[in-house]
Specification:
This protein is α+β, with helices and mostly antiparallel strands. It has one domain. Helices cover about 45% and strands about 15% of the residues. α5 packs across α12 and α7 packs parallel to α8.
Length: about 400
């Protein structure tokens, strides 16, 4: 058990280090925020040329920088009550189909006598009709010892195999929705919207070595992004707490004399600098659209001309928290659908009290708890006994289950 007194003593012993770090970070965040704000004084072409993009593989601004003359697009709606906000949201969502898929997993533990895992993916499709029509669905797959052991040498761990399988199922579920909703314009429907709980980008942990896990994960993501463009059905990768440093990296590319810092984008967008309000000051405010590039992205995240397939905006989706990051395929902005997509995301956040309702509902349907894991083990044991093969759970695991 954790002893509170011991923890407090350990923290007090390192108190000066925490204070020094906090002061240095605040200075770095304030400087980065001020530099980001000053980009509004420059043309997008000038910024792109100065950063050396796209050849430098650094994020660069869209033409919204010129149109807005700043890096922030304020949200113009103003409400006096949550009822007014909800009324606006319901109008935005009326007869619009939104969709989300999310998953959970059971990893192969060392307490099992043979490795076995499971993934479950749930989806939520809301038609937002007067009749309240919606569809929930769930799909579970078992990952066998053969799958885990036969491919283990191609990945860093069996856990990566389970995680990849989970994501592939999530992506496939969303892809089926995109295919179903293709042709929505011709049918006279409102623009549909799909959510992925997470980023539409994956960066290799090793800049010069891309693992099989990275390659397969990227392949599934790129297939999803490309299908979104082919079907003209937008998909948004929603990241509630983003630690991405893309805007910081752009600032450093623009001024090589800058000291490298650990500041991430969401921090500088909510920082108070020189007495000014944060860049994203009010609920619903967003940044301009940025084209996302990184040195450790797979080449498949770029189109045939070398331009990035995915961009992003940051949006203030809560009253006082950090902004959410929304990864959005570049084609969405080019097709003139960005504002409609962002209003639909805002409306979902109003209904979900700060988080997209569609994702929240899919997550609730997908999650597998500790009790579900225990049930999984019991069913596995019954299955093994009825088919006369060995599957045991270690006594240590049984003991922990009784004590915790």
């Amino acid at each position: 058990m954790l002893h509170r007194g011991h923890l407090m003593n350990a923290l007090e012993a390192r108190r000066d280090e925490f204070i020094a770090f906090e002061r240095a970070l605040c200075d770095d965040v304030s400087e980065a925020s001020a530099r980001l704000r000053s980009l509004g004084e420059r043309a997008s072409a000038e910024v792109i040329e100065a950063a050396g993009a796209p050849a430098s593989r650094v994020t660069f601004p869209s033409d919204e920088l010129d149109a807005r003359r700043g890096v922030v697009v304020p949200f113009e709606q103003c409400w006096r009550s949550h009822e007014e906000a909800r009324s606006w949201a319901l109008g935005v969502l009326k007869d619009r189909v939104t969709f989300a898929a999310d998953g959970s997993q059971i990893f192969p533990g060392r307490e099992f006598s043979m490795p076995v895992g499971a993934v479950q993916v749930a989806s939520f499709e809301n038609k937002h009709t007067a009749e309240g029509m919606y569809t929930k669905d769930a799909h579970l797959e078992v990952i066998t010892p053969g799958e885990l052991l036969r491919t283990e040498r191609q990945y860093e761990s069996p856990e990566q195999i389970v995680s990849l399988k989970r994501f592939e199922l999530e992506a496939q579920t969303i892809c089926r929705f995109l295919e179903r909703k293709s042709g929505w314009r011709e049918r006279g429907e409102r623009m549909p919207l799909a959510f992925l709980d997470g980023t539409l980008l994956i960066s290799s942990a090793r800049q010069h070595t891309q693992t099989r896990f990275f390659e397969d994960y990227a392949k599934a993501l790129v297939a999803l992004v490309r299908l979104s463009g082919e079907t003209q059905v937008p998909v948004v990768g929603y990241i509630d707490q983003s630690y991405a440093p893309d805007l910081r990296d752009l600032l450093e590319a623009l001024d090589k004399s800058l000291r490298q810092t650990i500041v991430y984008d969401a921090q500088m967008l909510r920082a108070h600098t020189g007495g000014e309000v944060p860049l994203l000051a009010q609920w619903g405010d967003r940044t301009i659209f940025w084209h996302c590039q990184r040195t450790n992205l797979a080449e498949s995240f770029y189109d045939e001309s070398g331009q990035p397939l995915v961009g992003f905006v940051y949006m203030q989706a809560t009253g006082d928290g950090a902004p959410a990051r929304l990864d959005i395929p570049v084609w969405v902005q080019g097709a003139g659908l960005l504002e409609e997509v962002l209003d639909a995301v805002r409306a979902e956040c109003v209904v979900g009290n700060g988080y997209p309702y569609a994702i929240e509902t899919a997550d609730e349907a997908a999650v597998m708890s500790g009790r579900d894991r225990e049930q999984f083990l019991h069913v596995m044991q019954e299955f093994a006994e009825s088919n006369s093969f060995a599957f045991r759970v270690s006594r240590k695991a049984v003991s922990k289950g009784r004590r915790r």
